[in-house]
Amino acid sequence: xxxxxxxxGGKTWKFYDWSQITTIATFGKYDPELLCYAxxxxxxxVLKGDVPVKEIVDAANxxxxxxxxxxxxxxxxxxxxxxxxxxxxxxxxPEYYALTALVKxxxxxxxxxxxxxxxxxxxxxxxxxxxKRCYNYSGxxxxxxxxFVMSYDEQxxxxxxxxxxxxxxxxxxxxxxxxxxxxxxEPKKLVMGVPWYGYDYKCLNLSKELVCFLPNIPxxxxxxxxxxxxxxPYRVIMKQVNSSISGILWDEEQKAPYYDYKDPxxxxxxxxxxxxxxxxxxxxxxKKRGLRGIGMWNGNCLDYSRDPVAVQQTEAMxxxxxx
Length: 323
Hints:
Elements: E1 2-7, E2 23-26, H1 32-40, E3 44-49, H2 59-75, E4 80-83, H3 94-113, E5 118-124, H4 137-143, E6 146-150, H5 170-182, E7 190-195, E8 197-202, E9 205-206, E10 212-213, E11 229-233, H6 234-240, E12 249-251, E13 256-262, E14 268-272, H7 276-289, E15 293-297, H8 308-319
Parallel strand pairs: 1-2, 1-15, 2-3, 3-4, 4-5, 5-6, 6-7, 7-15
Antiparallel strand pairs: 8-11, 8-14, 9-10, 12-13, 13-14
Helix pairs in contact: 2-3, 3-4
């Protein structure tokens, strides 16, 4: 399976498991050292592409934007582009058709101007208009090399009880892939994205059953959302869990770890995240279902220090990608 890595800058990339990586998507400042090193390992390095969807309804604007991206990729000796547009779009809007056209035209331009280049598009964990992103998913999949499915932030819209839960619940995550495939999108057009971070939720109340009740913070139509919490990288989680009041707990239904702690002001918190156990279960599905590969947001979330415990924890997260 291919491994797709998002890099947000810094020098932690020197400690990545390069034996696995096929693509690095650069979301941070351009780093020529990273580019040269990745190429020496046989890995692609691609741009991040984003543009306001209202601007791309005009075909001339699309052409200008695409030309700019191609020129940038050429000048920086890069290998393609990862289009990351996470904006609201209605199925009946001009933007719906313009977005599909943008992806098709971008793919055609890159493949023509940079032979062997790769054009990919980021999509939500499910095609069911998550966060009001009602895109032409099958058309976009046909128009590019593959979709990167962001199987995280799955609580961005909470329609049930407003309680803390897994960032990427196992069954919900897999249902998302089944939905894409049922739209006649080939599994080989899908790369599974997994989170190397979790959410820290301050509980309004932590029940005896360890249910963490959250304030109602709406998002794009839903009454509750993960905006009630804050994102925490895996490296921080691994340091904090040892001082938690619960230790590592496991939710068998969601197949995800979590723990509880008390802050200096006496507030209870619950932290949900993914670890090697939860990620390996999803990676096994990706392999059995014949997905193109797996990737993560983001490669910098691990502890790449030479501390022996950190080394072991980091290696385990990379190994979890290989079922």
